[in-house]
């Protein structure tokens, strides 16, 4: 009987120590994961959709807006399929068209804004 009580006491103390340890870790915060194991939320699709919204909000001529949005929609399709190289190619095509329209159907500021946003998305794609 004493032996059984001793075993139960050891188990209870061990559990209490484990709970205390977990609480201490929670107060410290998450332990960083080294290297490429750090999880990053995939926001490139949402960022590309936000860029579409930006283009649509610029009141561009319909043909220009449609052409730019088509390239961004293609990039989203490739991102969703995991074809990252093609997604980057579509975003680069978008940048090329934006640069071609700078000073024409796009102001320089608009072109810079769109180019910068697209480049940030490209840089975030693995």
Plain-language structure description:
By secondary structure, the protein is mostly helical. It has two domains: 2-35; 44-124. 75% of the residues lie in helices and 0% in strands. It contains five helices and no strands. The protein has helices at 2-28, 44-56, 62-81, 84-101, 108-124. α2 runs antiparallel to α5, α3 runs antiparallel to α4 (84-101) and α4 packs antiparallel against α5 (108-124). The radius of gyration is 26 Å and the shape is globular. The N and C termini lie far apart (63 Å).
Oligomer: single chain
Beta-strand share of residues:
under 5%
Number of E strands = 0
Rounded to an integer in angstroms, the radius of gyration calculated over CA atoms is 26 Å
Number of helices: 5
Biggest β-sheet description: none
Secondary-structure element string = HHHHH
Number of domains: 2
Distance from N terminus to C terminus (CA atoms, Å) equals: 63 Å
| Helix proportion range | over 70%
Judged by helices, strands and strand pairing, the structural class is mainly alpha
Give the uncertain stretches in residue-range form. 13-41
Mean pLDDT: 79
Give the overall shape, derived from the CA principal axes: globular
């Amino acid at each position: 009987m004493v032996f059984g009580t001793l075993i139960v006491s050891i188990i209870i103390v061990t559990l209490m120590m484990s709970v205390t340890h977990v609480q201490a870790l929670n107060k410290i915060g998450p332990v960083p994961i080294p290297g490429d194991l750090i999880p990053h939320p995939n926001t490139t699709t949402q960022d590309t959709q936000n860029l579409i919204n930006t283009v649509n909000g610029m009141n561009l001529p319909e043909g220009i807006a449609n052409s730019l949005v088509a390239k961004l929609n293609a990039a989203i399709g490739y991102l969703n399929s995991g074809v990252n190289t093609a997604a980057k190619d579509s975003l680069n095509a978008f940048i090329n068209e934006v640069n071609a329209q700078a000073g024409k159907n796009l102001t320089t500021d608009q072109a810079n804004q769109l180019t910068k946003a697209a480049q940030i998305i490209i840089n975030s794609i693995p």
